[in-house]
Amino acid sequence: MNARQDTSAKRETMTYDRERIEALLDEGVRDKVYPGAVWAVGDATGVLAQGATGVLDPDEPDVPMRTDTVFDAASLTKILAVWSSIGALWEDGTLDLDQPLGAFWSEVAGHPLAAVTAQQLLTHTAGVPLRAQLKNLYGTKPEDIRRGVLREQLHRAPGEAVEYTDRAALILGYLAEHLSGQPLDQLATTRTWHPLGMASTRFGPLPADLAARCAPTELDQDTDTHLKGVAHDFSARLLGGVCGIAGVFTVVDDLAAFLRYMLAPATSSWRAGFGSKWATCSLTKQTGDLQPARGLFWHPAPGTTAEEEVWVHYGFTGTGMWISPIDGRWAVLLTNKLYYSRDREPLNGVRNAFRKLAFT
Question: In the structure, what pLDDT confidence band is assigned to residue 306 with cuts at 50, 70 and 90?
């Protein structure tokens, strides 16, 4: 089969899958798993299929969800801003992942975090506290929060267990700022988003024009309105909208550009700060015998085998993106499920079914 026939065959397959994907996501709207969803599936050449279903806001039933809807990416921030920036610094030779942080970072020298490595933070094996609790522990001043986070006691010995924690990304965001001399939002923009043409990706709060087409998330008890254009994550709001944990807003086309580049940096006409070495290293199991398995911030998709090699990262607001180097394919599913509920189970079922359809 030549290249043209192969592409045609893939597109025919996606036409069949598209009907099933649309039926799946439409059902999620009817079941009130989320008000609406935007999705895309593609490979290194571009988007093979995409679509949108449902409404932007149930209070405005005549306004449909659209493929240019802006979403609160939540923990996809960890990939889009922190992982990409750390990768750029690593590929520059600025950062040694296996060197204890205290050996080159004066802010943590003499404190428990000094013994931790960037590699351990990226694999969630650093032993740092599991919950952020920034305001309760350190107050509301960003400088006090930074100092407190970087001097905090460890939850357990580094390398002992895999335990997902927001603090890993927060610390790595601070580290990226220290090594680059730039705020995280500027670093991500200059090294990743701008080079990849991700023009609608940015930290919030959003300006009025972008906020108008943003999918609303959870009801804010203080204002009795749903958050829209302002990060749902409390830590991100506390830190002015910019932090390693959350705070990025994005659209499906920007995520498609990001994932396309990850699949084939060497042949791409774009040049981000990170390249194929970082992508390959990150989409490889890095946690040895520890469970659950982790790459660098990415983890194997639930329900897949090591041979399938499908990696994923989720966001609490209802976002997710998958990538499979062996299959040469990526997928994105963006929802605002948090509008209705914090219950993860209904969306988990949709996500897993979507992933199966996207990678068959």
Answer: confident
Which of 170, 157, 164 minimizes the C-alpha distance to 127? Answer: 157
Q: In this structure, are residues 74 and 319 in contact, taking their beta carbons and an 8 Å threshold?
A: yes
Beta bridge partners of 202: 249
Ordered DSSP codes for 173-226: HHHHHHHHSS-HHHHHIIIIITTTT-TT-EESSPPHHHHTTBPP-SEETTTTEE
Here the tokens at position 82 are: 């922190």
Burial class (CB in 10 A: 0-12, 13-18, 19+), 356: middle
**Token pair for residue 154?**
């460890």
State the DSSP H helix or E strand holding residue 248, giving kind and residue range, or none if neither: strand 248-250
DSSP string for 40-53: EEEETTEEEEEEEE
- Please say whether the beta carbons of 203 and 210 come within 8 A: no
User: Can you name the residues that pair with 324 across neighbouring β-strands?
Assistant: 329
Q: Is the pTM of this model over 0.90?
A: yes
Strand-pair partners of 49: 41
Distance CA 359, CA 282 (A): 20
pLDDT at 12 over 60: no
Q: How far is CA 2 from CA 7, 8, 13, in A?
A: 9, 10, 17
State how beta strands 248-250 and 46-54 pair: unpaired
Identify residue 241 by its one-letter amino acid code: G
Give residue-wise pLDDT tens across range 79-112. 999 999 999 999 999 999 999 999 999 999 999 9
Residues 36 and 338: their CA atoms lie apart, in Å, by: 11
In angstroms, rounded to a whole number, what is the distance separating the alpha carbons of residues 248 and 254?
Answer: 12
Residue type, 108: V
Report the mean per-residue pLDDT for the chain: 94
Residues in the chain: 360
